[in-house]
Design a protein that fits this description.
Length: about 300
């Protein structure tokens, strides 16, 4: 039996935010090309299904969902907010991105696989309940968490986010919900300006901001001193990962200096927690990463570690 499920869909490559936008289809192209080697032959690969629009409303307001779909253009581009842009295929891409996370949860909870990675776009962790922002239309990981609770009655879900930008949307959606853990390392100061260490929610939020030019040691120290101990104490029944790879030293949108082996390290650490606390159950979904080569290599490191867990 395959240990790791890999979910993606060609619709996610069709979402286009316009010329010169960093969240470009080539990001996903690079990831898929990097996985086209025999060492990944044991990956169970499936197309991400569509989700129903009602699934989006598990965490988002009806007004937001309807506004996005009412503004999908027949051609060209529409700016939803700042540099969060939609084009004719963006709606289908967004439904596939959420559908991938929900399908991953179905497979992992059923015991068909131990863990899963969703290679999807648009990303999600900046999207708040009533606001799309930061390249994100809907919060894929938050919808997945609520889906897992509603469908399977899972009581304690942990979300760990190592994207270089703070997952403000994830924090805002769950900051008053003690059954959801949110732990984040991210550069500060940097967009979106949230994620201070003293933002603690109801004791369920654990932010570990990193100063510009921080590197591997600072990242690992933050994880080992704050995020991982809190995660162990939380006793999760399921771990979800917002897997952004834009803290890589080659990424153009940040100034944190991580390397591929840092993503191997944190994935192994999270798999260790999952093995001890929740039968190895992890679902990871792609967030940022804007140097296509760095993104591909970092994703490979992450997936290898999931497969070897």
């Amino acid at each position: 039996m395959a240990k790791t499920l890999f979910l993606t869909h060609s619709d996610c490559q069709k979402h286009n935010a316009g010329p010169n936008h960093p969240e470009k289809p080539e990001r996903l192209d690079a990831v898929l090309e990097a996985l086209d080697f025999p060492q990944f032959s044991k990956l169970l690969r499936e197309d991400a299904p569509n989700c129903d629009r009602s699934t989006l409303k598990l965490v988002h307001t009806s007004e937001l969902v309807d506004n996005i779909f009412n503004h999908i253009p027949t051609e060209g581009y529409v700016a939803i907010e700042g540099d969060t842009i939609i084009s004719p295929d963006s709606g289908e891409a967004a439904l596939r991105a959420v559908g991938a996370v929900c399908a991953a949860i179905d497979n992992v909870i059923a015991g068909q696989v131990q863990n899963a990675f969703c290679a999807v776009r648009p990303p999600g962790h900046h999207a708040e309940a009533g606001r799309s922002m930061g390249f994100c239309l809907f919060n894929n990981i938050c919808i997945g968490a609520e889906f897992a609770r509603r469908k399977y009655g899972i009581g304690r879900i942990a979300i760990v986010d190592f994207d270089v930008h703070h997952g403000n949307g994830t924090q805002a959606i769950f900051e008053n919900d003690g059954d959801i853990f949110f732990g984040s390392t991210h550069q500060s100061p940097l967009y979106p300006g949230t994620g201070a260490a003293d933002e603690k929610g109801v004791g369920n939020i654990f932010n570990a901001p990193l100063a510009p030019e921080a590197g591997s040691q600072e990242f690992r120290d933050a994880m080992e001193s704050k995020i991982l101990p809190a995660l162990y104490k939380f006793n999760p029944e399921l771990i979800l990962i917002s897997a952004g790879f834009d803290a890589h030293h080659n990424d153009p949108l940040s100034s944190i200096n991580l390397y591929e082996n840092d993503y191997t390290w944190i994935t192994e650490k999270l798999c260790q927690v999952a093995g001890e606390k929740c039968n190895g159950r992890i679902i990871s979904s792609l967030e940022g990463g804007y140097d296509v080569d760095a993104l591909a290599n970092s994703t490979i490191a992450h997936i290898k570690s999931l497969m070897d867990a």
